[in-house]
Predict the structure.
Amino acid sequence: MERKFPNLCKPLKLGNVTFRNRMFAAPVSGVEITRDCTIGHTMTSFYDLRAAGGVANVTVSELMVDPKTDASQALHISLETPGSLAGFTLTADAIARHGAVPSVELSHSGQYAGTYMLDKEKAHELVQYGPMDWVRPDGVKVQALTKKQIASIVAAYKNAATLAKRAGFQMIMVHAGHGWLLNQFLSPAFNQRTDEYGGSLENRCRLTIEVLDAVREAVGPGFPIEVRMSGSEFLEGGYDLQGGVEIAKILQDHVDMIHVSAGTYKGGFFRTHPSMFVEHGCNVFLAAEIKKHVHVPVATLGALNDPEQMEEIIASGQADVIYMGRALLADPYLPRKVMEGKEDRIVRCLRCFTCMADRGWRHIRTCTVNPLIGREMGGIEVTPARHKKKVLVVGAGPGGLQAALTSAQRGHNVVLCDACSEVGGILKSEQAVDFKQEMYMLGQVLERQCRDEGVDIRLNTTVDAAYVEKERPDVVILAVGSEPIIPPIPGIDGDNVVVVNEYYQKKGKVGKKVVVLGGGLAGCETAIHLARDGHEVELVEMRGELAVDANIRHRVILMEMVEQSAKIHTNAKAVKVTGEGLVCQDADGKEFTIQADTVLCAAGQRARTKVVEELRDTAPYVVAIGDCSKVANITQATAQGYHVALDI
C-alpha cells in the first residue's frame, strides 16, 4: 500500500538487525525498580505497552553498569543478584513479542550518582566519582577516578553488555550525553585531567571509545551499538555544536548509529526535555548538522509528536531515525496510527511534565492524557463487559470524553451530552493560547475516537432530571466540570473584565495593558501567553507564591517564564475594578491601583455541585468524576473517566 508518511514508515537496517520503521522509543525510566535494583513486573508491563503500538525499537532506561562507583537507585544487572537476569529477560521478551527491537541503555552517573534517589541526604552521602577532584556547587565533593577504576568501569560496561545480550536484547545504547560520566569526560567544563584521558579532544574521547570497543567485543559483529551524545552541552565552558560535530566524527567508526540529544544535567533539563513554551523539534538542528559530517545513521529527538514534521525531518535528510519519549507515553499507538494513516487519532503529548514530576516526586510514572501509564499491570486491553448497559455521560470535557470512550470500547450503549456546541469542556479555552494547542486538540481527538466507537454525541443538550428519566439509562456518569470563581468585588462585571475561561471567545476585547487577577497555574500561563502576544502584563496573587497548583517540574520553567513576562504582585488582594484598572490592597492594607485596559479574571474554579445534587438519584448507578467531584486537573479527570467505565 502507499504510505502517507513513506520515509517515516521505511525500514532501517543497523548491523544485522532490521527495524520496521524509523520511529524509536527513547529511553524513559519505568517504575518499580526493586530493592536489588532490578526490573520488577510493573516495569516489564510498562515497556510492554511502549512496544505494543508499532514502534520499531524500545530502549530500556537506564542500566547503571558499575554499582561500586555509581551506587544510584537505578537498574543494575548481575549474575550475583537474584532475579536480575530474569527481570531483564522477561522485559526483552515483552518488547520483542510485539515486533519491536529491544535495546538497553548502559550508563554511569559519575559525579551525579544518587540523582534518582528519593532520599537526597543519603544520595549526598555517596562517594561521587568524576574525571577530576572538585566540589560541586551544592557542596558535594567529587573524587577523580584512578586509571585502575577507569579500567574497572570499562570492564563493567563489557560485562553488562554481555548479560544484556544473554537476556535477549538486540541492541545496545551507550549513554555519553546529558552530563553523565562519559559526557563528563568529553566535556572541557568537567575534564581538565592531565593524563591520557584529558586535555585534547582525542584524549577526552578516549574513555568513550574504550567503552564502545569493550561493548563491541562483548556483543560481537553485526549487533547494533548506538552512542547517545549531546550535540551541544549548552553549558558555559562545555562544548558547543562544533565540538559535538568533532566528537561524533571521532566516535562514528565505533558505532552503528549516533543518537543526538542536547544539554547536560547541570542546568540543562529543559534543553534536554523541551517544555511547552518552545517549538517542537527545537533540538533537531543538532542532529542535522552532525549528520553532514558522519557516515553512519543519525537519530534525533526533542518533543516530536507531529507525523508531518517527523516525515519532513527524515525526507529532508536531517536525521535517519526519530526517537520519542513523552509522545509514546501519551499515545503508545502513535507509530501504528502513522503507519495506517490515522494521524488525526493520535493523542498528543501536552509537554506538561506530569510524567516527570511523578517520577521524581513519588517514584511512579503517570500521564495526563493516558490513564494506562503506571497502571499497565492491570492489562493494556479494555475488557468487554459481561452485560451490555445504557450509559449516559453528562459533560464532554476530558473526563466525560474518556468515560464515554472506554464505556463504548467495553460494548455499552453510550450517550454523551453537553450543553455547549463543541466538546472539550475547559479544554476549549486553550485554543487561544499558542503553546497549549495540544490540550485543545485533545478534546477533538477524543471526540473522533468516541464517534469511531459508536458513541451517540448530543451537543447543545442540557441534561436535567426529566431528560434522564426520558432516556432511562442504567448508569449516569456526571462529568459536568467546574465553573470560574468570580470574586465578589465592585466592578467585576464591567465591560473591561474578561474571565479566563472565555478568553478564547473575547480575545479581541483585550487591550494593550492587562492585569491578570489570580496567580495560579491558569493565571500564570495566561500571563505568559499575553506577553508573547504583545501585551503589557501585570499579575496579582493574594498568596505569597505563584502557581502552587503546578507540578514540580513544570513550575520551575513556568516561574522563569512568568517572571520574564509580567510584573508580579504577590500578597495582594483585589479590592475593586474601575475604568482605570484594578485597585488592590497590599499585605499592610495599603491600597494601590494597577493601570490596565483589561482585567483578566483567573481566580480559580469551583465544582458544579448543584448539577450533581440534582441528578444524583436519577439512575440505578450515578457517579461524579472530574472537577464536579473535586476541582483538580486533567490528569485526574482522565484517569477517573477511564476507571469508572471499567467499573460498569
